[in-house]
Amino acid sequence: MSQAKGICFHNVTLVRNGRTVIDQLSLELSEPRIGLIGHNGSGKSSLLRLINGLLPVNAGQISVFGQNPSSGPEKMSSHVGFIFQNPDHQIIFPTVEEELCFGLINQGLSKSTALEKVMTLLSEQGRCDWAKRPIHSLSDGQKQWVCIVSIILMNPKVILLDEPFSALDLPTRYQLLSLLHDLPQQIIMISHELDSFTDFDRIIWLEQGKVRQDGPSDEILKAYYADAKGVNPR
Ligand SMILES: Nc1ncnc2c1ncn2[C@@H]1O[C@H](COP(=O)(O)OP(=O)(O)OP(=O)(O)O)[C@@H](O)[C@H]1O
pTM score, two decimals? Predict the structure, then answer.
């Protein structure tokens, strides 16, 4: 298994509640933009959770930039940022400023340096006035923006997004997609909104914890649509 360069799965199996949900999966994930698709329950979220150590493997090995995710999500946080579907599962502080400072302070920055970084980024985004805003006053899209920005501040090597747009309207989705589009980090994203994968390098289609198809996004999305419409019944 090649190490250090990126994310590698070698014969990985994950069992949840007695059911095999990732089945002897071997993958190298090195492209800058990778999409994960598949029907409900096919194992997409489980796969992302293996990468940042939220779930431990039952068999096989995973290497994430040379590190074993079994060291746990906190240890992985300098390499891996995770954005959940529901921002309320991620946000823990009452104001935007406190939420954004938290990860940086966890990474060892002083409170004042963390605040300086947060204010610089808010200013770059034209949102200085957001610093003191109570989280409960934000819409779902605005909360998701805070989650994405909090991950960007921590500067991980890869950002994992688990259906980040499912509760958002179209304009908010496009704003967040444009924010993600310009980031230098590798992105691995799950979405059922397939037009979110415009410009992605690679799409992996999961089925029952195995790869059904894997390749350039146009090709795989076309096959997925055709399958869903029953054009290519198996
Ligand atoms: N917390 C859990 N405990 C036990 N089993 C779980 C848990 N979450 C999911 N599973 C099981 O793991 C399998 C894969 O689920 P997973 O959430 O990874 O699929 P998914 O492809 O992300 O689905 P969806 O598109 O519905 O989000 C499913 O069979 C599901 O029942």
Answer: 0.91
